[in-house]
User: Fold this.
Amino acid sequence: MSLFNLQGRVALITGGNGGIGLGMAIGLRDAGARIAIAGRNAQKAQGALAALGGDAIFLEADVTVKSQCEKMVADAITAFGRLDILVNNAGTTVRKAPQDLSEAEWHSVMDTNLTSAFLCSQAAYPTLKQAGGGKIINIGSVMSIFGAPYAAPYAASKGGIMNFSKALATSWAADNIQVNCILPGWIDTDLTAGARAQVAGLNEAVLARTPAARWGEPSDLAGTAVYLASAASNFVTGAAIPVDGGYCARA
Assistant:
């Protein structure tokens, strides 16, 4: 359908060199978009570029630094001539009880997961406004809604990014910029592999609560990303969409 056609569009995905970021990047590519992925690990990005093929590019950037966010956006525009879609996906976590967290660990998670979305969105805004509109997709989590005893800064950052998305949506709607949030459930990635290794019984608990009775795959995020990046969602803004196999729906 033409509503979902991203031909001629350019998407920039932070943390797009692996996990759900790469899953979304592949989906956006398959819908016709040209792709720039950004992150700090250039070596890891080579595998992602091989998976994306075509004229996809990697932009090395620390998205917790304002000047690097601005350069990243400028480099994407230099490479492709435009920017239409920003996916704020970069993320990290520290799994400790709240009382055991250092101030540096708290700030590291908050800056990577939440402040980066602010800085990247702010960097992209002038270009999207000048172009007459665009799409920003922020990646939250089921922990935007729920908490966990070992993930205080992660849950705080993901709850924050959901409401940050609503604030941007209301502020930038007049510029025809739609801002929405995806809430992934338990997706099988390197990050969650670490959680399964560190948190006893997590695998069993996830399977028991998820009606789909499986962990998600990065490719499960692709369809929602395409929808929110396309004309199909032009009257959808400020939404938070769980992609979780029913995890949030279960009491």
User: Anything to note?
Assistant: The beta strands are 10-14, 34-39, 57-60, 85-88, 134-139, 177-184, 240-243.
